Each structure stands twice: as structure tokens, then as C-alpha cells.
Amino acid sequence: MPAITTPFAQSGEVDHDGLAKNIRRLLSAGSTGVIAAGCTGEFWSLTETERSAVYKTAVNTVGHKGTTIVGAAAITPSGVIEALHAAKEAGCNGALVLPPYFAHLTEREVIRHFETVAANAPLPIMLYNIPGNAGNALTPQIVDVLADLDPVVAIKESSGDWINFQKTLNVCRDRIKVFCGPSSTIGVPAMLAGCDGLIDCFPNVWTGCIDMWSLFQSGKIETAWEYQARAQALTDLFVSGGRTLYPATKAAMDHLGYPGGGAPRAPLQPLEEPALQELLQGLDRILDRNDSAA
Fold it and tell me: Cα separation of 92 and 237, whole Å?
């Protein structure tokens, strides 16, 4: 399931037409659903009203063609619960929930936060471990506790640390589904270990990241490894040379003529030269536009 961007019009408002077009493109490419208003969707820049509207556009566009999961991030339990109710009202299938961010918490505080959220959750929860962004980690020890909460049905493990991913998979795989977050870097190893699915932002740019799952499932492991290498090269390109992931993703989408790109919201800024030109040149080289895999 791709973690999709939130496009913005030149006026600064959410571009719901571009959002819907990108979702339809990804579903046509084989996506089994989408993650909207998550990290890639710049959730931190959206007002509550905007976020609820993104939920509704995602649900209306995906319909019965797949699963719609949306970000319900907030620092306080009440903020998360409010977002969960908005997601429920929009018709979402589930919500992605980070641990609280900014405030550095103890293990007990993180667990208590999720217990409070779970006791008031109106729809299924996918835990989200991305300590590089959130600041607080869902360690395997914490996940072992949270996996027993009734609304918790899955985790998106996006630490990028293979040992942490495998330990998390081992402690909870018999109770909840485990999705590999950075599938662009460790998707094939995660599938070999028995993960339940892949979630990544790179399908916005290259749908080979979607194909990697089907290739593996059909036994074409060698080809899946080749796709993995290309995805790893994309990752390196997008986060080097003065570039960061989300502005680079949108710039690449614009270059390829895909909907859903455009400028990110402040404090993120569009790429400038020479970082932009280096991105586009590297993108054309890695994707090899004449290659059917691109």
C-alpha cells in the first residue's frame, strides 16, 4: 500500500483532484489500498478540517477497490481519538497511529497513551513505529504489550533497523499483521522473514515498488531482488545531496508527469539547484525510462 502525498494547489489549499488522480493511478498499478495523511502526506501541515477532507477524498476514491488507512497522529490521546472519530465518519477502514511526538516519554507513558486511545477507538488501529520522525520508539517490548489491545490489528514498522524489524515481527506476528515500512530498502528481506505487506512512499514515483510484492509472491525472487536494488538506489538519491524525502518525492512526480506532486507545505521547501537537477538526472538514470519496469 503506497503512502501517498497530499498535493497542494498554488493557492495553498489541498488539491483534492490531484489527490484522487494519484490514488486511481496507484490502484491501477496494483496497489491494494493507500495510506493517506501520513508522514508522506505531510499530516503535520494539515488543519483538522483539511485532514478530515483528505480522509473523505481517499475513501471516496478507493471505494471498494482496496483498503483506506489514514494517519491519525497527535501528541495527546484526546487528539488521536478525535482524529479516529473523523476517520470513522469518513468511512476509513483503519487508522495509522504514531506514538506521541516531541515530548520524550518513558515506556510506561507510551503504553498508557495507546491504552487510552485503544479504549476509545471506533475503528481498527495500525501502530506506526518511525522513531526518526516521532522521537519516541515503539520498541519490540512495547509492541509486545500493545499487540494485545483489542483495536490494534497491525503495525507499520518503519524504523529502518533490520534487527528491530525482525524482533518486532517475532514478538507479534501471531497476533497482528506486520507491514514493512521502508520496503524500498528492506522489502525483500522482510518478505523472506514473513511480513504481511509493504508500505512505502516510493510507489508515488516508481510502481516497481508495488510490483516487488507480486514478483515475490509469484516466486520470482531474483527479479524482486533486482527491483529492491533499484529502490535502494532511489532512496539514496532522494536523501542525499542536500535533499530530503518528501520534497524530492514531489519533485520527482512532477518530472515524471504524475498527479499528486507540486510544492510541499512550509516549513518544507521545493528543491533548488543544483539539488533538483541532480535528482532529475539520477532519477532518469535509475528508472531507465525505456525499461518496462519503470
Answer: 33
Q: Which residue has the cell 524482486?
A: 224
Give mean pLDDT, residues 34-49.
97
Average pLDDT, the chain: 96
**269 CB burial (10 A radius; 0-12, 13-18, 19+):** exposed
Beta-bridge partner residues of 36: 70
CA dist., res. 209 & res. 187, Å (int): 9
Q: Where are the alpha helices (DSSP H) in 173-274?
A: 183-193, 208-217, 221-238, 245-256
Q: What average pLDDT does this structure show over 115-135? A: 97
Q: What share of the chain is helix, strand, coil (3-state, %, to 5)?
A: 50, 10, 40
Q: Which residue, among 106, 104, 108, 36, has the nearest Cα to 72 in the 3D structure? A: 36
Question: Alpha-carbon distance 260 to 252, whole Å?
Answer: 11
**16-220: in CATH 1.20.120.420:** no
| Buried b / exposed e along 128-149 (16+ C-beta atoms within 10 A) | bbbbeebebbbbbebbebbbeb
Domain spans of the chain, in order of start: 16-220
Supply the DSSP symbol for 38: S
The Cα-based distances of 201 to 35, 139, 180, 217, 249 in angstroms read: 9, 23, 12, 21, 8
Question: Cell match 483538522: residue?
Answer: 48
CA atoms 183, 124, 30, 249: torsion sign: negative
| Average pLDDT rounded to a whole number, residues 212-232 | 97
- Where helices occur in 29-178 by DSSP H, the ranges are 48-62, 77-90, 107-119, 131-134, 140-146, 162-172
